[in-house]
């Protein structure tokens, strides 16, 4: 693509990977350094973004080690999640389609009043598909997916978080369209407290500066998606920038049925319709990942019955799963979200959510 050839043509001096504070185009540097580890820039479709604007706030140069770390540990090379893989969440899918996917496909239509928002928040109980959705957005829009876990950001990069955030945005700009997904965003972007340390205060400010940089440049196709199950703890300044806030609730009965069927695919089971209906009703309050755990636990029941025969039994002689297995599994695998937390999230959605 045009993007990759530009990367190859950049000055060889910059390819050494040394920390350079004199780099005139950090976005090129980041992209070119990354070319050794990541696929070349994809075709941008019409109105390809300009690759010449230096990233905001990059006066301090870039750190090749950080660029490398971002390319190896943060760029997710295979977010091949499809819309169909995600059960339910129709409203969230529709909003994301409008906000992120269509604008990358038809940039000419999404200008002025229709210019896409650069920041959005997915909030809801853990294990409900927020990460899956962000991955699906990235793969459907052919975007580079930056998967940032906020807690690892603070634990692994103590004192360097600020620099990492700056470099992250530089790499994201150079590899756009990009989706920066920040899981557990509340843990780094929470309301300021007295005891907040200097490093986390600086990290937060750097995030805001970088975010405003991409938001003010309509040529940049970088979308920041934050995910949290504690939206009430988010800093106001951050919340203001994540203009669309999409509630990702626990799966409803229909979504639970789809999820259960999906998880059981490829396994022998005998669950007549009435048992499935019972199971769906009894798993009210279970998240997608709770259902996954429930199916895994149920799948172990026929194996446990084998006792010592487990070493000799033929795989096709293991009996299929039945309702009783799930019933037993339900006494071990309980919904992980307390009801009180659930209603807190619903209240927050009514006050601040977009849907
Ligand atoms: P979150 O980011 O909301 O904590 P994830 O997206 O990481 O949750 O989901 C965790 C796991 O739970 C997924 O890998 C998937 O197996 C399952 N899951 C949760 N919600 C859904 C859903 N709506 N459709 C399909 N699978 C789901």
Automatic annotation (TrEMBL):
<protein>
    <recommendedName>
        <fullName>microtubule-severing ATPase</fullName>
        <ecNumber>5.6.1.1</ecNumber>
    </recommendedName>
</protein>
<dbReference type="GO" id="GO:0016887">
    <property type="term" value="F:ATP hydrolysis activity"/>
</dbReference>
<dbReference type="GO" id="GO:0005524">
    <property type="term" value="F:ATP binding"/>
</dbReference>
<keyword id="KW-0067">ATP-binding</keyword>
<keyword id="KW-0413">Isomerase</keyword>
<feature type="compositionally biased region" description="Polar residues">
    <location>
        <begin position="1"/>
        <end position="24"/>
    </location>
</feature>
<feature type="domain" description="AAA+ ATPase">
    <location>
        <begin position="116"/>
        <end position="252"/>
    </location>
</feature>
<feature type="region of interest" description="Disordered">
    <location>
        <begin position="1"/>
        <end position="59"/>
    </location>
</feature>
<dbReference type="GO" id="GO:0005874">
    <property type="term" value="C:microtubule"/>
</dbReference>
<keyword id="KW-0547">Nucleotide-binding</keyword>
<comment type="similarity">
    <text>Belongs to the AAA ATPase family.</text>
</comment>
<dbReference type="GO" id="GO:0008568">
    <property type="term" value="F:microtubule severing ATPase activity"/>
</dbReference>
<keyword id="KW-0472">Membrane</keyword>
<keyword id="KW-0493">Microtubule</keyword>
């Amino acid at each position: 693509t045009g993007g990759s050839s530009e990367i190859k043509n950049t000055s060889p001096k910059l390819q050494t990977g040394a920390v350079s504070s004199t780099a005139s185009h950090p976005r090129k540097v980041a992209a070119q350094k990354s070319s050794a580890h990541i696929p070349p820039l994809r075709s941008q479709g019409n109105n390809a973004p300009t690759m010449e604007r230096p990233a905001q706030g990059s006066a301090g140069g870039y750190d090749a080690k950080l660029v490398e770390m971002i390319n190896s540990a943060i760029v997710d090379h295979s977010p091949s999640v499809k819309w169909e893989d995600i059960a339910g969440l129709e409203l969230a899918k529709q909003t994301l389609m409008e906000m992120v996917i269509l604008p990358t496909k038809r940039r000419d239509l999404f200008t002025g009043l229709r210019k896409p928002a650069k920041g959005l928040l997915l909030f809801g109980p853990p294990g409900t598909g927020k990460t899956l959705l962000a991955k699906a957005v990235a793969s459907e829009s052919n975007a580079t997916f930056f998967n940032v876990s906020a807690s690892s950001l603070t634990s692994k990069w103590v004192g360097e978080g600020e620099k990492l955030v700056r470099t992250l945005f530089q790499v994201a700009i150079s590899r756009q369209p990009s989706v920066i997904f920040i899981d557990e965003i509340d843990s780094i972007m929470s309301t300021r407290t007295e005891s907040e340390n200097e490093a986390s205060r600086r990290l937060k400010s750097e995030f805001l500066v970088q975010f405003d940089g991409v938001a003010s440049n309509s040529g940049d196709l970088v979308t920041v998606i934050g995910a949290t199950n504690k939206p009430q703890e988010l800093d106001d300044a951050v919340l203001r920038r994540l203009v669309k806030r999409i509630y990702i609730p626990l799966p409803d009965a229909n979504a639970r049925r789809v999820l259960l069927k999906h998880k059981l695919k490829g396994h022998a089971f005998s669950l007549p319709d009435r048992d499935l209906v019972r199971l769906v009703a009894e798993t009210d309050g279970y998240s997608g990942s709770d259902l996954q755990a429930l199916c895994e636990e149920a799948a172990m029941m026929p194996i446990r019955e084998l006792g010592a025969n487990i070493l000799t039994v033929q795989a096709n002689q293991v009996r299929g799963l039945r309702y009783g297995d799930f019933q037993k599994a339900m006494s071990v695998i309980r919904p992980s979200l307390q009801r009180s937390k659930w209603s807190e999230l619903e209240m927050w959605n009514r006050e601040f959510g977009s849907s």
